[in-house]
Write a structure and sequence with these properties.
Blueprint (H helix, E strand, L loop, with lengths): L2 H10 L10 E5 L25 H11 L6 E5 L9 H10 L4 E5 L12 H7 L2 E6 L5 H8 L3 H14 L10 E5 L10 H16 L5 E4 L6 H9 L3 H10 L14 E4 L5 E2 L2 H6 L31 H4 L13
Parallel strand pairs: 1-2, 1-7, 2-3, 3-4, 4-5, 5-6
Antiparallel strand pairs: 7-8
The structure holds iron/sulfur cluster (2 copies).
Length: about 325
């Protein structure tokens, strides 16, 4: 039993188990136009891992058993998958609520200028990473010019109703610029709203704060600075049992670019499959059988339970 499992048993008297699957998260590949310092999947332009169409077909088949299941598309930059628009079109035709995690700057890659309108026409909700409202901080994490592209992209999206009309949500994602926990989500949202409106005249729906996981490129960075041990200690000492009910692994399952399955995108990045005796590939999956499964955990899980908690949907408790 690992340190996180012991903590969960102390706090709840049992192992971590899932509730019913409400959401399918699909990682369509690790290729990305950026190479952010905090990236837990180490995405980048040279990553060859891209989901093939037959795997997408398996997902579409699987989802026929779960009408109305929300689908959350992530990557990499998901838009760089060559089958991306076809996949979105088929998911929409099947009536699934859709959310895409975009880095915004991908709109400026060759052939991608039509993405904002494509999203609007397919009723896709957007979750866009913007780790700060200041150019210098975004540049430090994501590279030169990315902040300006992000602002231009949000402006285009605002013109299409995103971040303005209630049914076109544009959530922005903050993550810390170093080895520390995010500040209070509500207070930071107010600061983002004020600063982005006053400095750039742009709007968004809500802010999600996400804790940096000690994985991938972020962990490499911590190790280089010899801060990995201190950061892991910070996360484990900030354990908050109130976050347990909302942990995203309890309410979703993830499919990797090659069709393998995991409890969350972080476990995918670590190569941790679902618990033994459960299917390991989307072709074998019966989603209903996943309710109540034991979640596979590791030391990295303290990143989800620290302070106000962290998930793909932001903080877990106020
Ligand atoms: S954090 Fe997102 S945008 Fe940045 S390199 Fe990773 S996948 Fe790409
Ligand atoms: S890292 Fe994944 S498995 Fe671990 S607590 Fe977070 S969501 Fe659950």
């Amino acid at each position: 039993m690992n340190e996180f499992d012991r903590k969960i048993r102390e706090a709840s008297g049992r192992d971590l188990h899932s509730a019913a699957v409400q959401r399918l998260q699909v990682n369509v590949g690790l290729r990305c136009n950026l190479q952010c310092r905090h990236c837990h999947v180490s995405g980048g332009p040279n990553r060859p891992e891209v989901m093939a169409w037959p795997t997408m077909e398996s997902i579409l088949r699987l989802l026929t058993a779960l009408p109305g299941c929300q689908v959350d598309i992530t990557g990499g930059a998901p838009e760089l998958n060559p089958h991306f628009t076809r996949f979105i079109g088929e998911l929409r035709a099947a009536g699934h609520p859709l959310q895409v995690r975009t880095n915004l700057s991908v709109f400026f890659e060759p052939g991608m200028a039509g993405l904002p309108r494509f999203y609007r026409n397919h009723d896709v909700q957007l979750v866009a990473s913007l780790p700060c409202y200041l150019d210098s901080n975004v540049q430090a994490q994501r590279g030169e010019g990315v902040f300006g592209q992000s602002v231009s992209a949000i402006r285009q999206l605002n013109q299409l109703g995103y971040g303005i009309e209630p049914e076109r949500t544009l959530s922005l994602v903050y993550n810390p610029g170093g080895p520390f926990l995010p500040p209070d989500q509500t207070g930071l949202e107010e600061a983002y709203r004020r600063e982005l409106r006053e400095r750039h005249g742009i709007e968004f729906t809500r802010l999600l704060t996400i804790t940096n996981m000690p994985l991938g490129r972020f962990l490499d960075d911590l190790k280089r600075q010899k801060k990995d041990v201190a950061y892991r200690t910070l996360l484990s000492e900030a354990f908050n049992s109130d976050t347990l009910d909302g942990l995203m692994c309890r309410h979703q399952v993830c499919v990797a670019w090659d069709g393998t399955l995991a409890d969350c995108d972080f476990n995918l990045a670590l190569g941790l499959s679902l618990d033994q005796d459960l299917p390991s590939h989307v072709d074998q999956l019966d989603l209903a059988a996943l309710t109540g499964r034991r979640i596979v955990t590791g030391r990295h899980c303290f990143g989800c339970t620290a302070g106000c908690g962290s998930s793909c949907g932001g903080a877990l408790v106020a």
